[in-house]
């Protein structure tokens, strides 16, 4: 006896060890699963984020390229205005006449100076980037501007000269011997006298020669600009960066570096340019110079022929990448710690019920010494856990209504392929089926005529829920489910020994149900009963027979239940009464896809599957055509459109029936497409006034264009352009140009603003662009228009 007990104790010990090993394995399986679920998406995101980090620096370079390209456009616009100003001065008849004069301070030539100065343009009417401009006449050796007249020597000594000249003679030799050329000069340091004070400025100038018949003439026009004005147009310099600009001849025009406080010597600048040229492999490259690595951004201007260089320190470019990498590392670390803790917690929670099952199975095995079957052991374990674990029992009980509902749906649709399967499920869900007969009662509400509208759905749902609550209270051992469409199905079981009283007992139950719901709802509730079913597998037939009785209510309308009668004849299926409502909805909404599905359903359900007799098919065709006529009558078409559709129907009047069906369905699609196109036109008619109002309000925005307006109104550019042209008879850009010119006319007539200021107010960045647009619309330049209008008034 003791030996047997010792053997049993040893077996129990071995089982405990094995159980512990299984529990640990299950815990680790769950932990690894949760870690994989949490960390695999995190790893994918990390790899993607690392890839995105590699693109950040590239995006920064692209941003710098974009900034530089915008700045180049601004500089080119200013140079265009310099060129325009130089050309207008060179074409001035007073300037050309004065260039041939000598001894201009001798009588009677002095008044010519005043004539010339009065003919020159004022600076305040021009671009604010202009510092000043001067005309140098080599015959008279005079320097003239709008405000002053100097001899060469007076201009050098009393007004302004570059630091690079050793003295007046050096500068004079340059002015007399070197020919004037078109183009921009390098930025240099100038000595400048202002308000009797000597200051130093950094200036560059745009130069062009005067018109002259002499090949040896050195007369020229110089338009000056300060370095600060140029830098205002260029991008904000990068800390530690280098920037320079060269012309098409390779001459250095502008240079700036923020590496050291001392300015670079020319030799070092030449060394840098030479290294860039030697290592150049494309528009972008990296170079190492002076112990630093730089990213080179280059832009060539096709308008001015200038080339711009930006050298960005590599540590500045990578600064954003490193900061982003640090922040992402912190978040990844926090996510990893949180994921590990969460995985551990979920693993412990998930493995606990399984451990309970293993312990109970082990106890059962020890208790019955292995003589109980596996399924009996599992059943004993499950019952024990359900009895002792309230959470598990509650969870199982909460699922029972869903299981009973699913079982009811399978019964009424006959979804059983194995004999006895229905009885097994009924036992599991707690439905009594032994020694009973069954019957289906179909409840149907008649609250609303026709289809239930969307706004009536809440009331319908409330009625169905109220009915199901009463059923649960009166017959809790029954099965029931909602089918939607105002219908609830109830399955009742009656003991076989009372089979002869089946209808009476069912009617008594239905009367109790009616008494417990609101009278106003009860009088709209109809009940339809199927035949008695001996087995659960026959419930499907009982449900079908109850459904048929919806179409055969005659002589039973006053009964508590409209029962299925064996002699009842099945009603031929035919399109429902809401045919016009459904088709009219899709056509009037322009919903081509919905119309296609509805027509396909009608043809498939009532022609192909049911094989209707020819006379019913002809009735269906006539009804479809009648519905189409009524829809067309509501659309407000023109008389020609009506006749066109009627004529298309008459064409196939004597054709075979299937041809008439096809023609009628095609007409439905054509009318739907017509409604859809009209809807698009209507949408644009609603937006057209808003679009023009938006243009009238934002005409001064230089970025006003087709793309910006389309984005504002959430339209495609192609659609906006097409509809705009069809509505207003002109394209979008021409309309905007006309609006801007009309606004400019008002400014020219009613204000003293300069042409440059007006061009900016009406949305043009360059004055010459504004001048061309104004002349294109009015045939006059802005100045000519202002002069003409003021003379006429």
TrEMBL record:
Mind telling me which residue stretches traverse the membrane in this protein? 27-51, 321-346
SMART domains, from UniProt? HTH_ARAC (SM00342)
Single Gene Ontology MF annotation: sequence-specific DNA binding
UniProt keyword annotations, A-Z: DNA-binding, Membrane, Transcription, Transcription regulation, Transmembrane, Transmembrane helix
Which InterPro entries does the annotation name?
A: Homeodomain-like_sf (IPR009057), HTH_AraC (IPR018060), HTH_AraC-typ_CS (IPR018062), Tscrpt_reg_AraC-type_HTH (IPR020449)
Question: Which PROSITE patterns does its entry note?
Answer: HTH_ARAC_FAMILY_1, HTH_ARAC_FAMILY_2
Residue ranges of every copy of the HTH araC/xylS-type domain listed in the record:
689-788
> What is the name of this protein?
HTH araC/xylS-type domain-containing protein
Q: Which organism is it from?
A: Eisenbergiella tayi
